Amino acid sequence: MPAKRxxxxxxxxxxxxxALHIAxxxxxxxxTMRRLGDALQVxxxxxxxxxxxxxxxxxxxxAEHVTAVxxxxxxxxxxxxxxxxxxxxxxxxxxxxxxxxxxxxxxxSKGAALIAVREQVEQLQEAGLEGxxxxxxxxxxxxxxxxxxxxxxxxxxxxxxxxxxxRTEDGERDFEHGxxxxxxxxxx
Length: 188
Known about the structure:
The chain is mostly helical and about 190 residues long. The chain has nine helices and no strands.
């Protein structure tokens, strides 16, 4: 008789990965603690050891996961280069997990996401942008709105659609065009 493999220990990382898989594959409405427990092969109550506030905490963690973007300023001299790098990294993170886009749009920044926003402001200030806080708010609003439009255009959010990718053919071009205009406006 072959030896039985021990179960993989439950961790917050495993919970987040499984929750993202469900949300991206079936939609956020289908993400329940029971379904998540089944995906992790544990009782749903086991998840509460990592997320004592339950589903509300899970939603906060998922929002934080897709909005806590980090960009190293190495090689990015101007504030414009840094702003573009942050915007592109944020777009990529959001499009990788369109199932939790609504959380990113509605949940306030907390934890690692809030730290990332502060880092972005500091990096833009260090590179010489006056009013970096306002600029970061404008950039985040643009990125979130742009991604929401792209996801909508892709048909990904339609429950009857078979679309696997939230990116659209024109999405990147449209995003870059709008980003250029916004950055020009921020520098004026």
